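User: what does the whole thing look like in 3D?
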Amino acid sequence: GEENKEEIEELLHYMRVVNAFKGYRKSCLRQLDRCEENFRKLPESHQRMLPAHLRKIEDAKVCVDVNAALINEITSYCSNMFENRQYKELENYTVKHTSFDLDKVKSTLKQIVRDWSADGARERDLCYQPIIDEILVRKPPNTDEVNSVSVLVPGCGLGRLAWEFARRGYFSQGNEFSFYMLFTSHFIINRTQGDNETDFHQYTVHPWVDQRCNNLSWDHAVKAVKFPDVNPGVLAYKNRFSIAAGDFLDIYTQADSWDSVATCYFIDTAHNVISYIERIYHILKSGGVWVNLGPLLYHFYGISNEPSVELSYEEVLDVVEKVGFRIKKNEFLTGMYTSNPESMLKYEYTCAFLVAEKP
Amino acid sequence: GEENKEEIEELLHYMRVVNAFKGYRKSCLRQLDRCEENFRKLPESHQRMLPAHLRKIEDAKVCVDVNAALINEITSYCSNMFENRQYKELENYTVKHTSFDLDKVKSTLKQIVRDWSADGARERDLCYQPIIDEILVRKPPNTDEVNSVSVLVPGCGLGRLAWEFARRGYFSQGNEFSFYMLFTSHFIINRTQGDNETDFHQYTVHPWVDQRCNNLSWDHAVKAVKFPDVNPGVLAYKNRFSIAAGDFLDIYTQADSWDSVATCYFIDTAHNVISYIERIYHILKSGGVWVNLGPLLYHFYGISNEPSVELSYEEVLDVVEKVGFRIKKNEFLTGMYTSNPESMLKYEYTCAFLVAEKP
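Assistant: Here's the predicted 3D structure for the full assembly of 718 residues, as structure tokens:
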């Protein structure tokens, strides 16, 4: 039946993700080997000009190994993640991954920097802080259990924004679809459980080792980032924080159930952004607040066989009002996404910052 | 023989480029048709929220037609471009183009804005002006024919920077490898020949019509840009300006022949950037100046079967000195490349700005 088909598809997807994680090391090392070969094919006179170049490639290989060891920890830890035993049993089977899947692994490593490192603080200040400030003012938290204030963070990635709300006393739930994100956030949030200083900054990632363009220095390519910058396990009200796996539209169907919804770089991941806006409206309580920040880099744009509706922001605002929201704030803020601060190329987003209220 | 093989390869490449230009309209319209289909598949209630959406897609189709008519003019005009008769005879044959080739066509249209429109003035001020200023001071032009001062602009794209030097009285030659660029610059520079105000601003391009992400408004996607903003035919010393087609390393072999070399977003197009640096040194006269501005977005990075050596900028500087140059200036400037000023996503480059002298 339809349900069984969906289950099998999810299983295959899970296996492909595991396989992509496992394929990271080999793929990156192959690329560095090619770097080495190309360098060795240069005229002798050229090679002599850069006596340290091959050593730098070796340094990069060590970084790849560090990342691969981290990935191994992440995937091992995640075999306990799902109660569904099928996942575990089938882990030894492999489903072929593509270079697209490997790119997801690489961007997941960069996402760690964004969400859980001191290096990501600037990005978080730009993207998360305005959302947090807005919800703090409009829906202040309440430490009293019966009157707790809820925040839903769809597309929560590695979970930092949802965790920031939980830390401030909200009943906070992150929601995420991507297994890449779910594996990694599960590892960071649940493995770092101790109460000591040593429980954070305990892991290392080399986020930029796969990028050999626009480097001012090889030092930047091999840079090590320690994480997490906080201990995610330290929460005054642990039972108020959770991350729910799955598709936003599948999971959140109950009307009038949330005090606030915070979306950051999320709405453009929709096949149909109108459905997202309608659903956010539907699940908010009367008087509830939606805060959105992000660009419109539609996720399914140009991908064949994937329906995609690419509205301009003008149209998005039109839909927001027609769905019934009252727009309380409509501004633009500069944002970044897993930006390498040392790179000669930066992607800068003009993010829509929207505060909308359900009457 | 080897020479014949090269000739055939060039011919096939030429035909593929012509074919890609010709395929632009169909490909873009197909994408807009898909937009339309996806919108029509939305629930009735969603479609009703955006009564103008389908009309906006129709507007975009009109823009694609305008671009296609321009492309048709460009390719028709360029059948006279080469003296080699073979090109003309084989124009009715087609060589299959890829989506990669179509992207080149789309970026060529954006390049028109960068080089030959008033909208590109900001980009040109950031990228070309520092180079022009530096060469004006270090190698001032001389209107006297016998003592003319020469500038070579390898990777000149659509030729604006080379033209700016010619306009200031230099003996200026642009060099370009890409047929996409060569066709288009040939059209703009040679077709706009009149001396009247009407001879510029006479063509229209819709540079952003293929981008449906990160639009604040559909108006931005369908924006019309007039060009050229100057009359390229108006030059006091016409015989001092030329554009040479071909590979930089193949064409420029004569030692001590140029007063200055200006490279803008060029050195990273090399298979081996060391060869470029050596060659620039070789062709400069003693006392000659090389001014470079750009990032290190290596052109052949990650392309299989294409050798690529990706040096960091530190290593580039090391090579520059080892080759024999004296570094006179080593700074960083913000630059952009065919940036859509209205888009919610911008690419910002930290460009190396280097002035080096051959002793």
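In plain terms: The domain at 2-357 of chain A is CATH 3.40.50.150 (Rossmann fold). The mean pLDDT of chain A is 92.
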